[in-house]
Recover the amino acids of this structure.
C-alpha cells in the first residue's frame, strides 16, 4: 500500500504523537547522565532529580525573603501583563481593522500608515517606552500592544475585505446603513477570524513580554529566568521554559475552544 | 412613466466599452430574462440596475425617477452564491431586513416587535418551503434550500424590483425545477418586477415574460475592446454599434400574465410590443 494511503487510527495517532516528545526526553536524559558521570557538579544539563528539587523549591515552598511562592507569583505577574495587553490589542485591532477594511475612505487614510508602522521593529521601541512611560507595567504592556496590534489590524482589515461583496450588497438591499453593516454583518463574521489571528500572536506576545521583563522588572517568568541565568541555574530555567510553553499552549487551546463554542456557525461556513 | 427605463445607457471602463446604446423599457410586473454569452455585459447591466455601478452615459429611471446610485431596499437581489449571511440562522437571515428597518442604531429588535418580525419571517419561510429549518445555519442547508432562503430574505422588505443573478445556475436539475415553481408563484403573488440573468435558455423561456439577448455585434479581435454589448434586433440603430448590445428582445409566447393582486388595480400586461414571431 502507498504511504499516502496509510492513516493511523486513534490509538496509533496518540502513540505516534508521543514519540518526538519521548525522543527529546531520552536524548536529554542520556546527555545529562553522561555529563554528570564526568562531573557531578555540572550545571548545564541537570538531572531530573535536581529539576524536581528546583520546582519544589520555587513552586511549593515559600520564599524566605518575600514569603511568596515564586513560580506562582511570577506566573500571575506575567499573565496579568500578557492578558491585559492582548485584550487591549484585540479591541484596538478590531476597531481599526473593521474601519479600514470596510470603508475605502479609511483605507486610503490609514492603510499606508499602518503598513509602514507595522514594519517598525517593536523591540527597538522598548527604550523609548521605558524613557517615556517609566519602568513599570505600562511600558511592558505597551510593548506587547504595539508588537501585536499592528499586525492584527492588517490581518483583520484583510479578513473584512474577504467577506464576499455579495453579502455587503445584499445587506444594503435589505436597507442596512453603514453602521448596521459594520455591527451586524461584518463584526460578527470577523470575530471568530480574529481569534485565529490572536492565536498566531500568542507567540510574539510572549516574546515581547519576556524581553521586557528581562530588561527591567521585579517579577515575572521572564524576569526570573534571566535572574537565575547569572547562577547558571539550568534546573530553574528548564522548568520555567516548559511552564511558559504549557501556558502558551493552553491559551491557544482556550481560544480555539472559545471559537467553537461562541461561533457555532463558523466551522460550517469555513468549510463551505 | 411606470416601470424601469434605460435611456441611451452606455457603460465603459476606460477604453473598453462593455455596453452601448441600451434603450429599454420594462413594464411593471414583467419577468425579464437576460441571456447571452459570457462577457456580454449582462452582469454589468444587472449591477447598474442594482446601483452597484453607474452608467457612463445615459440614465436609468424607475417609475420616472433616476435610480439611486447605491443599492437600497427598493430593489431585492439574489446572487448565485453568498446571498445569505452565514453567521445568522435561517429565521434570523429573514428577520434581519426588518431589524435593519426598525432599529437604526442597534439593528436588533426586542420584545413585541421582535416577535412580530419573527412571525413574519416564519410565514415567509413556510411560503418558500423552509419550515422546520428555521434554527439551522445556512452552511447546513443544501444549495437549493440556501437559494430559497435568499429569496425569502430578499422578499422580506417587499421590494418592487427583484434582481436575480444566475440564481439557480449551481443547482441540480430536479431542484431547479422545484425552485422555478416557487419563483413563478412569488412573481405571481407579489407586486414585483423580476429581472433575471441566466445562462440557461430554457429557464429564460420557461420563467420569463420577455427574453432579452445581449451580444457583441462585431468580432474583429483587434477592435474587440471598443465593442460593448447593445440591444439589437428590430431596434433602429442610428450608428453602427461599437460594443455589446441587445440583439434580440421579444415577449415570450404564450404570454404569461401575473395574476391581479388583491386590493390593487389590475396589473398592466407586461409587453414591449415587439414580438419576434420567428423565434416562437
Amino acid at each position: 500500500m502507498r504511504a499516502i494511503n496509510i492513516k493511523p487510527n486513534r490509538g496509533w495517532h496518540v502513540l505516534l504523537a508521543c514519540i518526538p516528545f519521548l525522543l527529546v526526553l531520552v536524548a536529554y536524559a542520556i546527555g545529562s547522565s553522561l555529563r554528570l558521570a564526568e562531573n557531578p557538579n555540572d550545571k548545564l544539563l541537570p538531572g531530573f532529580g535536581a529539576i524536581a528539587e528546583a520546582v519544589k523549591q520555587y513552586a511549593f515552598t515559600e520564599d524566605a525573603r518575600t514569603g511568596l511562592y515564586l513560580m506562582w507569583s511570577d506566573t500571575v505577574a506575567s499573565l496579568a501583563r500578557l492578558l491585559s495587553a492582548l485584550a487591549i490589542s484585540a479591541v484596538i485591532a478590531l476597531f481599526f481593522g473593521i474601519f479600514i477594511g470596510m470603508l475605502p475612505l479609511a483605507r486610503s487614510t490609514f492603510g499606508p500608515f499602518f503598513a509602514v508602522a507595522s514594519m517598525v521593529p517593536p523591540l527597538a521601541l522598548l527604550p523609548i517606552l521605558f524613557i517615556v512611560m517609566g519602568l513599570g507595567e505600562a511600558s511592558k504592556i505597551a510593548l506587547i500592544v504595539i508588537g501585536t496590534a499592528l499586525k492584527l489590524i492588517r490581518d483583520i482589515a484583510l479578513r473584512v475585505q474577504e467577506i464576499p461583496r455579495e453579502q455587503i450588497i445584499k445587506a444594503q438591499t435589505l436597507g442596512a446603513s453603514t453602521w448596521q453593516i459594520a455591527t451586524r454583518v461584518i463584526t460578527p463574521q470577523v470575530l471568530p477570524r480574529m481569534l485565529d489571528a490572536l492565536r498566531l500572536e500568542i507567540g510574539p506576545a510572549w516574546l515581547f513580554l519576556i524581553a521586557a521583563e528581562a530588561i527591567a522588572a521585579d517579577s515575572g517568568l521572564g524576569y526570573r529566568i534571566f535572574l537565575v541565568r547569572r547562577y547558571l541555574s539550568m534546573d530553574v530555567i528548564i522548568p520555567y521554559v516548559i511552564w511558559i510553553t504549557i501556558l502558551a499552549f493552553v491559551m491557544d487551546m482556550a481560544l480555539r475552544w472559545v471559537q467553537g463554542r461562541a461561533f457555532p456557525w463558523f466551522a460550517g461556513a469555513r468549510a463551505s | 412613466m411606470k416601470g424601469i427605463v434605460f435611456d441611451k445607457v452606455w457603460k465603459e471602463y476606460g477604453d473598453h466599452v462593455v455596453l452601448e446604446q441600451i434603450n429599454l423599457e420594462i413594464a411593471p410586473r414583467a419577468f425579464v430574462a437576460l441571456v447571452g454569452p459570457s462577457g456580454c455585459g449582462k452582469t454589468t447591466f444587472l449591477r447598474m440596475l442594482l446601483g452597484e455601478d453607474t452608467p457612463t452615459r445615459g440614465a436609468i429611471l424607475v417609475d420616472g425617477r433616476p435610480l439611486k446610485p447605491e443599492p437600497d431596499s427598493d430593489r431585492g437581489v439574489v446572487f448565485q452564491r453568498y446571498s445569505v449571511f452565514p453567521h445568522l440562522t435561517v429565521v434570523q437571515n429573514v428577520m434581519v431586513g426588518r431589524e435593519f428597518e426598525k432599529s437604526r442604531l442597534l439593528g436588533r429588535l426586542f420584545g413585541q416587535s421582535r416577535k412580530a418580525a419573527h412571525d413574519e419571517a416564519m410565514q415567509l419561510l413556510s411560503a418558500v418551503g423552509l419550515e422546520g429549518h428555521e434554527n439551522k445555519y445556512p452552511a447546513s442547508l443544501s444549495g437549493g434550500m440556501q437559494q430559497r432562503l435568499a429569496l425569502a430574505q430578499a422578499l422580506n422588505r417587499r421590494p418592487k424590483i427583484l434582481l436575480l443573478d444566475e440564481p439557480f445556475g449551481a443547482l441540480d436539475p430536479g431542484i431547479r425545477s422545484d425552485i422555478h415553481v416557487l419563483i413563478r408563484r412569488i412573481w405571481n403573488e407579489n407586486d414585483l418586477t423580476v429581472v433575471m440573468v441566466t445562462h440557461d435558455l430554457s429557464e429564460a423561456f420557461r420563467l420569463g415574460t420577455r427574453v432579452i439577448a445581449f451580444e457583441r455585434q462585431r468580432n474583429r479581435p483587434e477592435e474587440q475592446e471598443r465593442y460593448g454589448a447593445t440591444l439589437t434586433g428590430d431596434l433602429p440603430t442610428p450608428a453602427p454599434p461599437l460594443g455589446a448590445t441587445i440583439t434580440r428582445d421579444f415577449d415570450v409566447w404564450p404570454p404569461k400574465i401575473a395574476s391581479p393582486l388583491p386590493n390593487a388595480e389590475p396589473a398592466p400586461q407586461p409587453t414591449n410590443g415587439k414580438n419576434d414571431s420567428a423565434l416562437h
